[in-house]
Structures are given as structure tokens and as C-alpha cells.
Write a structure and sequence with these properties.
mainly alpha; about 0% strand
Length: about 160
């Protein structure tokens, strides 16, 4: 879908250019343009469904991450006060950590899907994304070459300031 929407846009634009140059009949232009428009409308509807479902899944993952974080915290407390022995603690901690990694990875996947589909819906193409990435990489390179800013510490003499 992320490839189809920009492709249909480009085809429709090429069709418009051909019509403007009088290389195709106006009736043919209208028929093909209508066809492209119908396909785009359907693809956009499908893309919006994916964006909406991704948002729901991101929220579900966030709730799961929060619950797992609380569970880890409670496990740490129970272990600290001696209610959970070392063997059970290590086993439970490993299981919770693995579940937390899975939920975080799943959330990241949904966020990437939502972002990519949303970008396509907004008209961004891979070329635009690549230019943005290249620009961001250039900014990062420049930023890594800058020296660290100086740290300024202000010292107030307690006795002389009247405090």
C-alpha cells in the first residue's frame, strides 16, 4: 500500500501532463483519471484503517508495558524484603524482562507502521523521506563535531551574602 499510493499519484500526474500536452483524448483522460481517483480513495480508506488499528495497538502495548513495569517493581520489592527467594526472583525477573522486550518491540513495530502509512497519506514519498534522512544525518555529523558547551558554576559565599 505504501508503494501503491505514490505510484497511483504519479500515474495520475503523468496522465494530467499528457492531457495538458494534448497527447490523449479528453474522454480517455476523464475515464482514466476517474479510475485512478477511485483506486486512490479506496487505498486511502484502507490506509486510514491501518493507521487507526495501529493507534489502538500502540495504546494496548503501552498499557502492557506499564503493567509489566509495575510487576517488575513489585517483584523487586518482594525480593528486597525477603518474600521471594533468589531462584524464583531470577526466574520471574527473566520472564518479565522478556515480556517487556517483546511488548516494547511490538509497540515500536506498530509505531513505525503507523508513521510510514501516515506519511504516505500525507503525500510523502520515499524520495522525500530519504532526503530528510540524509539531511538529518548531515545535522548529526555537524553536531558531533561541535565542542561540548562549557559548564558554568556559580558559587555564592554564604557568610558575606547575608544568609
Amino acid at each position: 500500500m505504501c508503494d501503491q499510493i505514490p505510484l497511483i499519484w504519479r500515474k495520475d500526474q503523468a496522465l494530467k501532463d499528457l492531457n495538458d500536452k494534448k497527447k490523449i483524448a479528453p474522454e480517455l483522460y476523464q475515464e482514466l483519471h476517474s479510475s485512478f481517483t477511485n483506486v486512490l480513495v479506496q487505498l486511502k480508506k484502507n490506509a486510514q484503517v491501518i493507521v487507526d488499528e495501529s493507534a489502538v495497538e500502540i495504546e494496548r502495548c503501552q498499557e502492557e508495558i506499564s503493567s509489566l513495569s509495575y510487576a517488575i517493581c513489585n517483584l523487586e520489592i518482594e525480593h528486597e524484603i525477603g518474600k521471594v527467594d533468589e531462584e524464583n526472583y531470577k526466574s520471574a525477573f527473566a520472564l518479565l524482562q522478556e515480556s517487556l522486550k517483546r511488548a516494547t518491540s511490538e509497540k515500536t513495530d506498530f509505531e513505525l507502521t503507523k508513521s510510514k502509512v501516515s506519511s504516505v497519506l500525507l503525500g510523502d514519498t520515499q524520495d522525500t523521506m530519504q532526503r530528510t534522512k540524509t539531511y538529518a544525518e548531515q545535522v548529526n555529523v555537524v553536531a558531533t563535531k561541535l565542542p561540548e558547551p562549557p559548564v558554568v558554576v556559580y558559587v555564592k559565599e554564604v557568610g558575606k551574602a547575608g544568609i
